[in-house]
Design a protein that fits this description.
67% of the residues lie in helices and 3% in strands. By secondary structure, it is mostly helical. It has a two-stranded antiparallel ribbon with strand order 1-2. Helix 3 packs antiparallel against helix 4.
Length: 129
Amino acid sequence: MRNRDIPFLFRLNREEADAFRERVKRSGLSQEAYVRQSISGKTPRDMPPPDYYSMMKELHKIGNNLNQIAKKAHVLNVIDVQRYDRDMRKFEEAVRLITEAVILPEPFENPQSLACREEAAQGGAQRGE
């Protein structure tokens, strides 16, 4: 278990505090979890729509049913194992991609590349580009 015994206090102006609270609320995380994800280089995502979890539960049920059918068909020797395996991998990949797109936090953009683009934009503006 992690030992988080260092309190951290910082001050925000009204606009920053409102923006922070709104982002935390949209993410569904606690303020502490939101800050920890940000510190670790990830951008917390907004909370998924209410029906996301029920849809994922149904997808997992479908995957389990497919596995049970495949086991029975394999015992009876009436299945194209390679085709089943290929399609099952596609199904599992689709579930993984959905989860990544909706739930997992996004990695921050590389701050150095962002700084380089900002410098280039400022340099271009100074030269009239």
